[in-house]
Design brief:
The chain is of the alpha/beta class. The protein contains 6 helices and 7 strands; from the N terminus they run E-E-E-H-E-H-H-E-H-E-H-E-H. The strands form 2 sheets. A 5-stranded parallel sheet has the order 4-3-5-6-7, sandwiched between helices. Helix 4 links the parallel strand 5 and strand 6. It is globular and about 45 Å long. The termini are far apart. About 30% of the residues are buried.
């Protein structure tokens, strides 16, 4: 156990996967950098692109074990859920119109979710995710990357 600001926390790193954000993507590296700032989580799995060759290239650059590189997010959610060493959470950084489908798939497979904003494009989909989170008791977070920018803080 370590203590930081009077709070005890485990030395064990969280293991996470990422959907989207592969080679050539803008936001994926931003989210990986943000997660790495704490030193408390490690990227171990992913489906970084719908183009499998690009997916494999991304995984190699990121040092991901080939057995944890998936062709689709559905495959990733299902297979990671069955692993003894499954991911603790997934980071979703795909185009906005896919947020709902990807988040729902991971929640239905018992995996916590960190989703880039916006949560969904349709309010009915947002309510469906809220109800799914309540029924599964999983963690679900939405990132708002821009709130950390000094320009935004100054404008406030």
């Amino acid at each position: 156990m370590n203590t930081e600001n009077g709070v005890k926390w485990s030395v064990k790193k969280l293991k996470y996967g990422q959907v989207g954000g592969g080679v050539g993507a803008f936001i994926g590296p931003v989210h990986r950098a943000a997660v790495s700032l704490t030193g408390k989580a490690e990227l171990v799995a992913g489906c970084f692109s719908s183009d499998h060759e690009r997916n494999i290239e991304s995984a190699k650059k990121l040092g991901i074990d080939p057995s944890r590189v998936y062709r689709t997010f559905e495959e990733m959610a299902e297979k990671e859920a069955k692993r003894e060493d499954k991911i603790d959470f997934v980071s979703i950084v795909v185009p906005n119109y896919l947020h709902f489908e990807v988040a729902k798939s991971f929640l239905e497979n018992g995996i916590n979710v960190v989703c880039d904003k916006p949560l969904t494009l349709e309010i009915k989909d947002a309510f469906e995710l809220v109800n799914l989170v309540k029924s599964t008791n999983l963690e679900f977070m939405v990132t708002y990357t821009y709130i950390g920018y000094s320009m935004i803080k100054k404008a406030k």
